[in-house]
Design a protein that fits this description.
This protein is mainly α and 432 residues long. The protein has one domain. Helices cover 75% and strands 0% of the residues. The protein is built from 21 helices and no strands. The N and C termini lie close together (6 Å).
């Protein structure tokens, strides 16, 4: 028997609509989708949420918003963001990013330069947890390979973006992974295992495509492409610790300390700058931390006013069985990411709705978290106004539209997961 559903209120979704109109409207008018900072648009949406439902006092609304922000998952997620920022800032300053790139180039055989870019990007993004950092580090290498081999710049940078989106979706310290896991209430290693099996075919096929189109090219390592294994070690330790299921805070703190020792030992960090570089990494995570808190407040008010119930009722009318529920979560992630152009923000917004869908249709938390993260990353790697493609275009002098045809992995990732969902035998129907 289907459980009774709360009556939804379409008007409760107005704050989300205001955010979308402001964020997209200003971007379309100005031609710059970052002209309206997301945090400003969210704050205006939060104000609109406070003006709704006159039956409740301002104090009651404030309490609801505070309860949303104070949710255990939200607080934990924000603390992990800051810890991940400290590690990222320290290991980058220690030379870890440059050494990791150089190590990859030195061990890859000649003739697979473009595929090598994606492979290095996969390793870097999984280790660093940031697609932006990966693109920033590898774009100059992609330019060099293009110049030395005469191969298309768009294909080279497309391989970099593909590799970056691989880790953006899979990394244990990626903000998207953290958001997906915390909103769905599952363990990181369980989500990783679920994710890896779903996207592995897409990664393999993408690499094969890059090997085929670049099989007659080569890349010679120059003296500048030197590496230091001590600088690579923090990445390896963090990756191994996360895969082993160790507490994420202990893994990140250990990686940060190891990065400090590696930086001091190799001379890339001076003692007086240790806390400075660590602080710069933490500061880089402020935006997403504050946005997560504001979004949590908005979602709490929208849910209290019946907005989440309204969305769920509309989705449930179009969903049939567990497969339908999984595809519903996928579509939800795609639409929200297209609207926000930020896959982490999209996951934070869609997370509560996805959790309700997964509960109603017997979808495991790790599967729901994987679907959210995967399809937000699929969209983020293909929208021309997303930060990743804008950064790649800016560093190569290309248009995002020139790069998109060669970002094979995001497309194949979506195709792979849809095939898994549709072809998998259904073991159970809707939860009752």
């Amino acid at each position: 028997m289907e459980k009774a559903r709360e009556k939804g209120n379409l008007c409760a979704l107005l704050p989300i609509g205001i955010f979308l109109v402001l964020f997209l409207g200003v971007g379309l008018i100005s031609g710059d989708f970052y002209a309206m900072p997301a945090i400003v648009a969210f704050l205006i949406a939060l104000m609109a949420a406070f003006f709704q439902n006159k039956k409740r006092s301002f104090g009651e609304k404030l309490k609801t918003a505070a309860e949303g922000i104070g949710n255990e998952d939200i607080i934990t997620m924000c603390l992990i963001y800051l810890a991940a920022g400290a590690f990222s800032g320290t290991v980058t300053a220690a030379g870890g990013a440059d050494s990791t790139v150089a190590l990859g180039l030195s061990i890859l055989p000649p003739g697979i330069a473009v595929a090598g870019l994606m492979l290095i990007g996969c390793f870097m993004s999984v280790s660093m947890g940031t697609s932006m950092g990966t693109i920033g580090a590898l774009a100059p290498i992609a330019v060099g390979i293009s110049e030395k081999t005469g191969f298309s710049m768009a294909i080279c940078i497309g391989a970099v973006v593909s590799g970056a989106m691989f880790g953006d979706n899979l990394s244990m310290i990626s903000d998207t992974t953290i958001a997906a896991v915390r909103t769905q209430g599952c363990e990181m290693r369980d989500k990783f295992k679920e994710n890896f099996l779903l996207v592995l075919p897409a990664a393999v096929v993408s690499l094969i495509i890059y090997v085929v189109i670049s099989r007659n090219t080569s890349f010679q390592v120059t003296p500048e492409n030197t590496y230091n294994l001590w600088q690579v070690l923090p990445y390896l330790v963090v990756l191994a610790g996360a895969l082993a299921g160790l507490n994420v805070f202990m893994v990140l703190i250990g990686g940060t300390l190891l990065s400090v020792f590696a930086g001091l030992g190799t001379g890339t960090i001076v003692l007086g700058d240790v806390f400075k570089v660590m602080g710069e990494g933490v500061t880089s995570m402020y935006d997403i931390t504050v946005i997560s808190m504001i979004v949590a407040a908005i979602v709490a008010l929208v849910k209290k006013n019946g907005g989440i119930a309204c969305i769920l009722n509309m989705i449930h009318k179009r969903i049939r069985g567990k497969k339908g529920g999984e595809l519903g979560i996928a579509v939800l992630a795609v639409l929200v990411d297209m609207a926000t152009a930020n896959n982490t923000v999209a996951i934070v917004i869609a997370g509560p709705i996805a959790k309700e869908i997964s509960s109603d249709y017997g979808i495991s938390p790790r599967r729901a978290a994987s679907l959210l993260d995967i399809f937000a990353s699929v969209t983020q790697g293909l929208i021309p106004y997303g930060a990743q493609l804008l950064l790649a275009a800016g560093q190569t002098g290309l248009s995002p539209l020139e790069i998109i045809p060669y970002t094979f992995y995001p497309v194949l990732m979506g195709v792979s997961v849809v095939c898994f969902v549709l072809l998998r035998k259904q073991k159970g129907g809707r939860a009752v």
